[in-house]
Structure formats: structure tokens, C-alpha cells
Amino acid sequence: MTKFAVVLFPxxxxxxxxxxxxxxxxxxxxxxxxxxxxxxxPPHSIRGAKLAKLVISHVQPSSTWLVCSCRVLCEFDDYxxxxxxxxxAEETSNLESSAVExxxxxxxxxxxxxxxxxxxxxxxxxxxxxxxxxxxxxxxxPINLTxxxxxxxxxxxQQSEAINQAKSPQHFESEGGGGFVLETNQLTPEPPMPxxxxxxxxxxxxxxxxxxxxxxxxQEAVIDRLIHISHKLKSLNLGPSSTPNFSLEGAPPLxxxxxxxxxxxNIWLLLGKNQxxxxxxxxxxGGDSVSSVTASVMKEIFTNQFAxxxxxxxxxxxxxxxxxxxxxxxxxxIRGVRSNRGYENSTExxxxxxxxxxxxxxxxxxxxREARRHHNV
Length: 377
Hints:
Layout: E1 4-9, E2 15-20, E3 36-41, H1 49-57, E4 66-76, H2 79-92, H3 97-128, H4 148-167, E5 170-173, E6 179-182, H5 201-238, H6 259-268, H7 272-281, H8 290-301, H9 304-307, E7 310-311, E8 321-322, H10 327-338, H11 348-360, H12 362-365, H13 368-376
Parallel strand pairs: 7-8
Antiparallel strand pairs: 1-2, 1-4, 3-4, 5-6
Helix pairs in contact: 3-5, 7-10, 8-10, 8-11
Protein name: DUF4806 domain-containing protein
Organism: Folsomia candida (Springtail)
């Protein structure tokens, strides 16, 4: 049954995504390292909602899709559960229950720390915004950071008025009925400030500036975190970067459709750099046997309609050309098959038999078997 697979792409900085399990090719060797597999992935032009639609519909991959190395973390029957698991795996790179629980605990701790910091900031703001009425400032009009200079002027004016009142002559009555006048130059010492009163205006302004600086640093930290989350989400929506497309510049369009194109391809392969480009292009198909890998390579080179007229040796009733001994045979096909991981030691005999079988069955793939069945009926 086809499922939704949560996969990790080790070659793409351990990027994680959800794909259809039908996109994952069978393991090429039973002892494949680290459980890595080869999968097909849509090209760059298909992303976002289009990509999600392909995954949900379990659309079969085509030969134009990218070939990537992946490791299947888990499989689900439900797409939303698979997507949720992939988001959690972004933090843990692991879908084990213990790892997920640890990630949730860390997330809850961060939330509690942010709430505690917010409460502390609110309490400090309320404390700073309740100035004493002894300075002539109403409680209904808290200090605004943008009006610090205005607040300072009012505070200084209040202090100046108190000093002037202290300097003015004052009359005091004695117990015997007589009195005396306190001269302006005889200032009484200032009584100590009660412990319940607020500090001076300069102290309040300093505290407000410190709070403003702390608040700005907190906002910068929040903005940096939001930018980091935005990059994570963008990376998740885009999916893993593709394996680079290898240029076959100057080669006839593949798959080949006629004898002339086959001749042109053999001429193009005379250059060493073209040979290497062709081998690299054919080295990422994969399969569970030499026959399946060879079939994938042949499908990239020949259309079924043209393959009907091609035989291995060029002999036969319907054959118009062959590939035995050509550069396409020796360089492209044989080296291309051996370049697939796990098939480096494939023998020429195994590859040759797979080529013959694929060319021989070209007519059946074009509907020949179905036509014979109707004819016999």
C-alpha cells in the first residue's frame, strides 16, 4: 500500500520533507549503508501547492524528475500526520518518541521563560510609570519616554520652588508669646527622605533609560528569532535542492527517435568530456537488479518506437541498425550502468543480455502483446 514517507536528504544538509513512498526506489543492495535509498523528486518548477498535490495523489515519478539520496525516517497513512512529523523532525532529526518528548519539553520551557520575562517587564514598567505626587505629577499621566526632557523641567521647577520657600523669611511664635524671624540665609537642614518615597527625578530618568535599552535588546532578540523561523519555513516549503542537471550540450535530443540521431550521438561521444557528461547523466537511475538499471538507462536513450527497429547486432528482419561495438554501447551504456551505486562490478555479459532483452521487448511495450492477444481471440 502506498504511504506518505518522511524522508531525510543527507546530501542536502539533512533537509526533511514528505514524499510518496512510491517515489522511493527499491534498495540497490541489501547491505546499503545507513539505510540510504534513491528516490525521485519533482524539479524546481514544481513547489508549494503543486508539490503537495503530487504527494497527496501519489503521482508516479517521470524520467524528468530529479534523483536524490534519502533516508526514510517513518511512514504514515495520513498526509497531515506525516507533515506534522516532518516539522518535529526538523528539530530532532529523529522520530523516536523520546526525542519528540524532549523537543516538546524544551519548547514548553522556552514558552515559560518568555512569559516570565514578559511579566517582569510589565511589572517594572508599572513601577516606573507611578511617579510621586510630591513632584506635582498626576498618577493619571504616567511618564512618557518621549517626554523625558519635559518631565525633567517640571521636576527641577518643583525643587526650585521648594528651595525658594525655604529661603524666604519665616516667622515663628515662641511659647512665651514672643516671636522671631528666620533670616533667608539661615536655612534649616533638609529632613531625611522617608523610605517609602520615590528617588529623585534624575534617578527615575536613569532607570527609564535603562529599561528602554533592555526593551530594545529584547525586541532585537525576538526579531532575530522570527527571521530564523521564517528561513526554516521557507526551506520547508521549497523542499531539498535538486541534484545539478548535467549538460549534454551539442548532443541530439534524448531519447533518440531515428537512425540519424543514433549516428549523431556516436559522433558526439568522440570527445572525452562528452563521454564523461553522458556517463554522469546515466549514473543516477538505480534499480534492484542489473536488468532494471540497464532498462532505465536504455529508456533514457531510445524511444520504444525507435527501439523496435534497433537490435544488438543490427541483424534481424525489422532491424535497421545496431549498437554492438559502438561508443554508445561501450561508453554510455556499459559505463553508465556500472556508475550506478552498487553495480560497479557488473559484467559485460550481464549488461549485454539485459540490452538484448530490452530491445527484443520494445514491440510489446508499444502494444504488440495486447494486439496479439486480441488477434488470437
